[in-house]
Each structure stands twice: as structure tokens, then as C-alpha cells.
């Protein structure tokens, strides 16, 4: 199992439960390591964090997200990606939302992985405005991203994929474009590179495979895949007919300067948060090298097949991995250095 031990896999428990389970499992373990683990893994984020300070926050965010997603499903895709891009860069701290200022002209949101493709900012603004009206100064932008991303999954899955999202994140004050470039994997990544980037955030290979399933919704700009996937003629790892249709669609890039064409990630059910992505991977009808790479090891290829074929397998794993991605950030053991080894990188 690739998951970190403090997140249970294959059970339907809420976030607090793994801690209880883990405490039991660790009863005989060295007292010192137990204390460290509990401090880092259990006293961080919690489900229902705003029960006392802003009891309606999750309903308020959900109502705003619903408006945006039902008007434009693409907003939902943007919100799901926003959590990933916030959390992989300096932890989940809302830093991806910060606009440029004279003192900081190149924040994360202007970095190539984010600009001009990242979207959903208006939905976050609307949610934050509504939350501030109800409980001023109580709810972090980082938590609003996490709730909104969770709600986007809920609506795009037609209310099937329900996630208890722990909260208690704080907003950061720094945002640097180069950090986004350094921490987010490019779509040209091979399996080794992907595994490395996710491992650096405390996420396993299985987490990486199940999270990639988010590419079952939304779009991509042609520049995200043309150069490596389409330029080499009929590449062997992409379906021929699919490649031809992409070439045709993306050729418009030459004609309309500044208005780059986009294509749907999942050609079959583009707005449905379902396991269709894995069927696309198997059919070699996915856009990125990083998507196709999931078939390049027997271990990950089996995860792709299980996601495609076993009812509920992917949804269950996705929910847990999505919560896990939302926990990136840490309470340092030594205030002078980032945490090393286990447990690192998680609230
Ligand atoms: C495994 C490594 C990953 C790579 C290399 C990758 C790369 C990309 C790229 C290049 C795009 C297209 C952006 C554009 O051109 O408009 C994209 C879109 C997207 N990604 Fe990923 N991604 C990865 C993982 C994830 C994860 C973990 C999530 C969320 C759980 C995610 C969610 C999305 C969504 C929803 C979209 C569509 C966004 C929209 O329509 O606005 N991706 N990704
Ligand atoms: C992945 O890419 C790296 C270069 O970044 C290379 O060293 C490695 O051999 C590649 N791995 C595979 C499996 O192709």
C-alpha cells in the first residue's frame, strides 16, 4: 500500500477515525514516535472545524459553488485543479489566489502551470464574500479552496462522490511563480518523474494514479500537449484517430493568435466526474504524456484497470487521496528546518 500509514485505505471512516485506529496500532510502539505522529497527524485539520466559529460555512460555500458549476461545468474543473495547485506549492495556504503587487509582481498565479489556464477564481471570490458576510474574519481562503474543490467534485459527480473535508488551514503571505514551476509536474512527465513529485508531498504512487482521474473533467490548452504528443507523427502511445482529431482542433492555434484552442480532457463524458478517464487511458485517448505514463508499469496499469473496471474502486480511493492532498502543509518539529522523513509534509 502506497498510502502514508496515518491515512487508512479501504475503509469508509471519517478523518478522526484513522487517528484512533493508529493510536491503537501504535500502543506498543515507542512512546516518542507515537507522540510525534499524533502531534503531526491528528492535531492538524479536522472535519467540522468551524462548528463554533462559522457553523454555516460549508453550506454557504456549497451554494456559491453550485451556482457557478451549474452555469459552467468548467468552473468546477478549475476548482478541483485549484486545490492541487494550491497544496503542492508551499502547502495549502491560499497562496495561489494572491494577485500581483508592485512588491511581488510574479506570484504563483502568473506562473506557466497556472497562467492563463487556471480558473475558478471568481467562484472563490463569491464564496469568500458570502462567508465574510456571515462570519467576518473567521474562515481562511485556503479552507474555502478545499471546500469549493470538494463541492465541485460533488456536483460534477452528480452528487455521488461525497467527501468529508477537514479544515483549519491558515493563509500564507508569500507567493512566488518559480515555486509553482518547481513543484507542479509538467504534462510531459514520465512515471518516474510523477512518482517523484508526488512522493515529495508525502503521496504514494496509488494516490498519484487515482488523483490523475480528475482529468475526467475540464479542458486543456493545445500547448499543454501538442509539442510532445502530436508533433512526432503517429506516436505509438496515442490512438491514431484521436491524434488526428486533436491535430485538426489545435491547428486553429496558428490562425487565431492569442486565443489558443482548448480540447476536453475526456471526450466521452467531458463534464462528468466519473471513472471514464481510466477507460480513456486504456483506449489511448488521453492528452498528456503523464496520463499515458500510467500504463508504463505493470503496477500502475493494474490500478488503471481496476479504476476502469471495478465499480466504486476509484471513487473510494479518490476521496481519500483528495483529502490527503488537502493536508499538505506541516507543523514543524524544529522551527528552524522543514520536517524530514516521517511524518513530513502534512498538517
Ligand atoms: C499527475 C500529474 C498532473 C499533471 C502533469 C497535470 C497537468 C495538467 C495540465 C497540463 C492541464 C491542462 C491545463 C490547460 O492547458 O488548460 C491539467 C488540467 C486539469 N487538471 Fe491536472 N495534472 C496532474 C494532476 C492533477 C491532479 C492531481 C488534479 C486534481 C486532483 C488535476 C486536476 C485537473 C483538472 C480538473 C484539470 C482541468 C482544468 C480546467 O478545465 O480548467 N490534475 N492538468
Ligand atoms: C524519465 O525521465 C528521466 C529524465 O527526467 C529519465 O532519467 C528516466 O530514465 C525516465 N524514465 C523512464 C521510465 O522513461
From TrEMBL:
The record's annotation in InterPro entries points to: Haem_peroxidase, Haem_peroxidase_sf, Peroxidase_pln, Peroxidases_AS, Peroxidases_heam-ligand_BS, Secretory_peroxidase
Gene3D superfamilies recorded:
1.10.520.10, Peroxidase, domain 2 (1.10.420.10)
State the reactions this protein catalyses. 2 a phenolic donor + H2O2 = 2 a phenolic radical donor + 2 H2O
Instruction: Identify the main location.
Output: secreted
Which terms does the UniProt entry file under GO BP? hydrogen peroxide catabolic process; response to oxidative stress
- Location within or outside the cell: Secreted
Please state every residue range assigned to the domain named Plant heme peroxidase family profile: 44-339
Per the UniProt entry, the Enzyme Commission number(s) are 1.11.1.7
Tell me which residues are marked as the site Transition state stabilizer.
81
- Which residues of the sequence carry a binding annotation for heme b? 215
Active site residues according to the UniProt entry: 85 (proton acceptor)
**Disulfide pattern:** 54-135, 87-92, 141-335, 222-250
Residue numbers binding Ca(2+) 1: 86, 89, 91, 93, 95, 108
Q: Cofactor stoichiometry and binding? A: Binds 2 calcium ions per subunit. Binds 1 heme b (iron(II)-protoporphyrin IX) group per subunit.
Its required cofactor(s), as named, are: Ca(2+); heme b
Single GO molecular-function term?
Answer: lactoperoxidase activity
UniProt KW keywords = Calcium, Disulfide bond, Glycoprotein, Heme, Hydrogen peroxide, Iron, Metal-binding, Oxidoreductase, Peroxidase, Secreted, Signal
Chain residues that bind substrate:
185
Tell me a GO cellular component.
extracellular region
General function of this protein = Removal of H(2)O(2), oxidation of toxic reductants, biosynthesis and degradation of lignin, suberization, auxin catabolism, response to environmental stresses such as wounding, pathogen attack and oxidative stress.
Name of this protein? Peroxidase
